[in-house]
Specification:
alpha/beta; Rossmann fold; 2 domains; four-stranded parallel β-sheet; 9 helices; about 40% helix
């Protein structure tokens, strides 16, 4: 199989760009030579720096879907929604006929299930657990999920003191292993990027970084799409709005909500 050039877009679904550069560096270091990487954030007036609450999510869901539509219109092969809640995942997949849309929770759990029978998710706050369990069950991983354990650190503070965050992850990860019989761990927030190796070295079990899991899944699916023609289904429950109706409602030419963009060739 001849490997062709692919484009993968990573969306940080915030109106702030401060995660774009460090995530672009992390992803640029692991991308394939034939992958064109776009790291983008939103152009809006919201100053929120996390999506820990459903209300915050709701405020950016429309822009997230519009970024997916923009990707679909502009030849992007795969896009990642960079939040472990997998916000608007099904909505983005519905509107995209060419771009494959991936999200970290589903990608991480699929990866963990390939490596272990039982996994635990280390979350930042207890608040997150209910919503993330909904996702796990929706994806069919209820029997794989050993537990979800909180380290009591908010998403916007996970990178403030990485050593402290790692220590808390190791503490809860060890309990997940001994008390819940977890055979692998998932770090339940994309803001945990760059921390998995230290935890993995100490605990000796697979530790999934959702940034890596989501991006490499998107990259792989982009390659399958370009080389084998595999892409997201658009029938039955995945059927997109009719083109004529989109035009009728003036939804076919909405301006792109992309703010900052970093490109790694």
């Amino acid at each position: 199989m001849t490997t062709k050039k692919t484009t993968v877009r990573w969306l940080n679904p915030l109106g702030l760009s401060h995660y774009d550069e460090p995530m672009a560096q992390a992803l640029g270091a692991i991308k394939r030579d034939n992958t064109r990487l776009e790291v983008v954030s939103l152009n809006n007036d919201l100053s929120i720096d996390n999506l820990e609450y459903r209300y915050y999510e709701a405020l950016v869901m429309g822009d997230t879907v519009r970024v997916a539509k923009d990707a679909d219109d502009n030849g992007v092969d795969a896009m990642v929604i960079g939040c472990f809640y997998d916000l608007a995942l099904e909505d983005c997949r519905e509107i995209c006929q060419n771009t494959i849309v991936v999200a970290p929770c589903q990608a991480s759990m699929q990866m963990a299930a390939n490596l272990a029978n039982k996994f635990s998710v280390i979350v930042g706050q207890v608040k997150w657990i209910e919503q993330m369990k909904e996702r796990a069950y929706r994806y069919g991983f209820k029997e794989h999920l050993a537990s979800m354990r909180s380290i009591d650190i908010s998403a916007n503070a996970l990178q403030c003191d990485p050593d402290y965050t790692v220590a808390k992850i190791i503490e809860q990860g060890r309990l997940a292993m001994t008390e819940d019989h977890a055979e692998a761990l998932i770090l339940g927030c994309t803001c945990n990027f760059g921390l998995y190796e230290k935890v993995q070295d100490v605990l000796g079990i697979p530790v999934i970084d959702p940034l890596i899991a989501a991006f490499k899944t998107a990259e792989h699916l982009a390659e399958l799409k370009v080389n084998l023609g595999l892409k997201t289904s658009n029938v039955w429950s995945s059927e997109p709005p009719p083109a004529l109706e989109m035009a009728k409602f003036n939804l076919d030419k909405l301006p792109s909500p992309i703010g900052n963009m970093i490109i790694c060739e």
